[in-house]
UniProtKB/TrEMBL annotation:
One of its GO terms (molecular function) is DNA binding. Keywords: Repressor, Stress response, Transcription, Transcription regulation. Pfam families: HrcA, WHD_HrcA. This is Heat-inducible transcription repressor HrcA. The keyword Transport does not apply. The keyword Repressor applies. Belongs to the HrcA family. It comes from Arenimonas composti TR7-09 = DSM 18010. Signal peptide: none annotated. PANTHER family: HEAT-INDUCIBLE TRANSCRIPTION REPRESSOR HRCA.
Amino acid sequence: MNISLDARERALLRALIAQHIRDGEPVGSRTLAKRSGLDVSAATIRNIMADLEEVGLVAAPHVSAGRVPTAQGYRVFVDSLLQMRPLPDAELLRLRSRIPAGAGTGELLSSASELLSAMSQFVGVVTVPQRDQFAFRHIDFVGLDGGRVLVILVFTDNEVQNRVVTPRRAFSASELEQTANYLNAQFAGRPVAEIRAALQRELRETGSEMQRLLDAALELSGEALAGRSGGSDDMLLAGQTRLMGVQDLADMERLRDLFEAFSRKREILQLLERTISAPGVRVFIGEETGLAPLDACTVITAPYVSQGRVLGVLGVIGPTRMAYDRVIPMVQATADVLGAALNPVPTAP
């Protein structure tokens, strides 16, 4: 928002929001006189509050009952008035111990969403990276009845996936072994997304003696290397029921709409994926989310990155009245720890 505030207005808005976050009640001029540190009268504070209300930064829910920040007020607070606190060492150690390098991706993502919920007391959310962003370490093919093939994939992030595919023709045991040996020798350690394109390129350029092997490799790997990790879910949510105890979200109709949005996941996933190319923490307050069920909520997100590649987004969903100075560093630290934990673990020579 392009609203210019003088020093006294900034100090009073900061003090009002800090007090309202602490106790959830409208803040009166007497309280502000004590909390702001300004040497001004209560009448001056009331006049400044009236000015802030006129530009939409605060509102008076009841006559003579003090004022509360609006979503626009929170936006100004987050953008220009917030004094960030570093994440306490104890919480950082907790993150690193619960999101350890070397664990499987599914376990790490689940731990991250649960920790975000536990530490914030709101909803923790993590998008699941597409599996084709990971490199594979080893592949095996096992022939099954009916011409089907069991594909055993071991990825460099320690995930193991078993998939059954039905190729267009039957493959002998020796063909399956030869194809697996070729893929392991030529492509181990490379991102899955590159393999199919590389095989197609080699098939065009190579002589006939390799054509049968490349055909087999292309067909068997095409379906096996597609899709996301973590099953069919593209997003993990933890702690939705915590919002039932939040004073600001006590309206049952609002809660029902919110839980329906959590159940569908699609709209929230689209919101999170809008932020995947933006570095650092993003904060969506109220209507900024573009989702009606989240009009009374704030969504704080950050991408998590491994080896220079953005794998997904994580964050916290809670009421607009939250401790931004604590939750924002928490989200960023969790993204940093998760990204570091997803770095491939070197294999022994």
